[in-house]
Amino acid sequence: MTITALFFAALTIGIGATVVMDMWSLILKRLGVATLDFAMVGRWAGHLLKGRFKHTAIAKAESVRRERWVGWVIHYAVGVMFSVVLVAVMGTGWLLTPTLGPALVVGVVTVVAPLCILQPAMGAGFFASKTPTPLVNCIKSLVTHLVFGAGLFLSAQVLAGLIRSISVGP
């Protein structure tokens, strides 16, 4: 596969996996479970561009223009970035016959980003330590990122099926 084809595959898988993650978050919301408001990610990014990395409570920080849109763009860009890493490490063989293990490993590893970077920067502390229920929040993050990993696998399976059907023909 060419670099362009590999990137397109990673882009497709990353978007698909992020959609799966978002569907999971929607289910949680419908069950009354609080989930991340991506406007807060956009707010954090807006303040980051002004030189401020860390906040006591991002929800109390001054809002920034188009913060919700920016947060969603960042959310999908990060999902694609993690997919690019998976595809780069696993290669064409995995793209043609995806397996669940590597995708779940990426899902688990990616939980480090919110627990050790984003949450502390937004005022929730490392591993959600400044929230009322740190363990519950860490478990929610881990499960959500496992769902992302499952989404990587499912999206790769769909893409592999499309590739096989195109190469075999009608």
From TrEMBL:
Transmembrane segments: 73-96, 103-122, 142-163
Keywords: Membrane, Transmembrane, Transmembrane helix
InterPro entries membership: DUF2938
Cross-referenced Pfam families: DUF2938
Protein name: DUF2938 domain-containing protein
